[in-house]
Amino acid sequence: MAGILPDLSLEEALELTKIYSIAGKLTGSVVTSRPVRSPHHTTSNVALVGGGANPRPGEITLSHRGILFLDEFPEFPRNVLEALRQPLEDGVVTVSRASGSFTFPAKFTLVAAQNPCPCGYLGDLNKPCVCSPGQVFKYQKKVSGPLLDRIDLHVEVPRLPYEKMAEQEPAEDSKNIKLRVQKAREVQAQRFGQAKTNSEMSIIELKQYCKLGDAEQQVMKQAMKQYNFSGRSLHRILKVSRTIADLAGSEVITGQHLGEAIMYRPKTE
Ligand SMILES: [Zn+2]
Q1: How far is the CA of 159 from the centre of ligand 1 (A)?
Q2: pLDDT tens for residues 94-119?
Q3: How far away, in angstroms, is 151 Cα from ligand 1 center?
């Protein structure tokens, strides 16, 4: 993930330098690369979101313009996870204290990982899961629906067999992927006339830049009905399809781009 992030603009570098300086975490004179933070699930609410008697930015602000990686997602306390909802939506976090309220930037990309069940083997082809249905249900319910709804790409990663891991063929180099990401970001900057990404599109911009053809509209309508997608899901699917189209260098969102975006959504039938 760190290897495919686009380079920081001068403006972003200065903004991050200010944040790290306030947090007392500045090493060197300026921040030169996008932050990737991975706090442990025992991290306190204040350390993650920010605050304290002398309000300081938390991990979500230290991940601004970069990545916040939360491993073992369901192990984080519920109140800590729920505190992520507002900043994920607004890109800022406000902490209130007797001394006043402070607003810190928090435009981060959330990457979260979790096992399918407490033992980790649910759905595994070679080893049976030893959890009871109740345990699995309880584990999977730890992360709330509204929070899951704010995560755009859900990907199941099955265990790799030995032959696959031992394959000599190298995977695509991160440098190459980074070039594609950088190019897609340039397309977006041109589209909006400023450094802004598709995920930050307003409803008006969404209508302008995520137009679907007749066939694609039918696909969307069908998926909405079948999977019970919310209005928020619909908007997020359109933004993700726009990005997939940008990465492919396509001006229009095709059925393939839309289908891929729909595939990444959590589905409830
Ligand atoms: Zn299990």
Answers
A1: 14
A2: 988 777 888 999 999 999 999 999 99
A3: 24
